[in-house]
């Protein structure tokens, strides 16, 4: 996550905002959450979500931690299950202050609507078809706080022109839908959020799957910030 251009914005939110909440989607072992905590985000205000609780438990084993020494929270389940995460309209700046749920008893992300200060999702969106990516973007938007500066950010496979692309990852060919910088920007600013209410930064970079490797592929590094 350190390589994302907007990462320092997440760090500032964690250090400066009152009761900030950080959500890592597709958190696996919790690596990214541990990173933001190390850089100052309050541990008890962080949440990871992934398909299986076992991944989170393996993270404790890997990092030799426990729920007592690492008080981040976890919600397991399929993000396309509306009981876990349903699409809701973005929070409006005109609405009354949203009450923050008790994170210790969290069983669904729906309880976080309008409360999350920063949402991270890397290597996530490109797993899905175009309509599913739009669905997930709208679901994330419903969780994001209306406070200016609140942010959704991440990185995934991109393309010069949006469409289905064939990528090779670790020797395996995969067909996936990839957005361009233009299509990704217009999706968030106009379809997901009302146009002009967010700032979208999207950069396409060529990266190697291995340090020093010859095989390179385009990656979209992006952020969506509430204005």
Question: Top keywords for this entry?
Answer:
single chain; 227 residues; alpha/beta; seven-stranded mixed sheet; two-stranded antiparallel ribbon; Meroterpenoid_MTases; SAM-dependent_MTases_sf; S-adenosyl-L-methionine
Tell me about this structure.
The chain is an alpha/beta fold and 227 residues long. Helix content is 22%, strand content 26%. A seven-stranded mixed sheet has the order 3-2-1-4-5-9-8, sandwiched between helices. It has a two-stranded antiparallel ribbon with strand order 6-7. Strand 8 and strand 9 form a beta hairpin. This is Methyltransferase domain-containing protein. GO terms for molecular function: transferase activity.
Strand order of the largest sheet: 3-2-1-4-5-9-8
Give the mean pLDDT. Answer: 93
Strand content: 25-35%
Structural class: alpha/beta
Overall 3D geometry? globular
N-C termini distance:
23 Å
The poorly predicted ranges are none
Family: Belongs to the class I-like SAM-binding methyltransferase superfamily.
GO molecular function: transferase activity
Organism: Suillus plorans
Protein name: Methyltransferase domain-containing protein
SSE layout:
Layout (H helix, E strand, L loop, with lengths): L6 H10 L5 E4 L5 H8 L7 E5 L2 H11 L9 E4 L41 E3 L9 H14 L7 E7 L5 E7 L2 E7 L2 H8 L9 E11 L7 E11 L1
Parallel strand pairs: 1-2, 1-4, 2-3, 4-5
Antiparallel strand pairs: 5-9, 6-7, 8-9
């Amino acid at each position: 996550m350190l390589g994302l251009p907007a990462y320092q914005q997440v760090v500032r939110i964690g250090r400066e905002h009152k009761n900030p909440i950080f959500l890592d989607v597709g958190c696996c072992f919790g690596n990214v959450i541990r990173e933001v905590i190390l850089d100052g985000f309050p541990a008890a205000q962080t949440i990871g979500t992934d398909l299986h609780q076992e991944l989170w438990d393996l993270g404790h084993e890997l990092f030799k931690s426990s729920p007592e020494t690492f008080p981040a929270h976890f919600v397991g389940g399929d993000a396309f299950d509306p009981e876990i995460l349903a699409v809701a309209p973005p929070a409006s700046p005109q609405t009354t202050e949203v009450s923050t749920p008790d994170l210790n008893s969290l069983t669904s992300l729906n309880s976080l609507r309008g409360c999350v200060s920063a949402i991270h999702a890397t290597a996530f969106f490109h797993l899905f078809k175009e309509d599913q990516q739009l669905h997930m973007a709208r679901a994330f938007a419903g969780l994001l706080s209306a406070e200016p500066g609140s942010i959704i950010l991440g990185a995934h496979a991109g393309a010069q022109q949006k469409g289905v692309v064939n990528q090779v990852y670790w020797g395996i060919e995969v067909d996936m839908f990839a957005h361009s910088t233009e299509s990704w920007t217009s999706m968030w600013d106009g379809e997901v959020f009302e146009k002009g209410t967010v700032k979208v930064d999207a950069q396409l970079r060529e990266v190697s799957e291995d340090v020093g490797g010859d095989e390179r592929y385009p990656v979209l590094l992006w952020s969506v910030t509430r204005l």
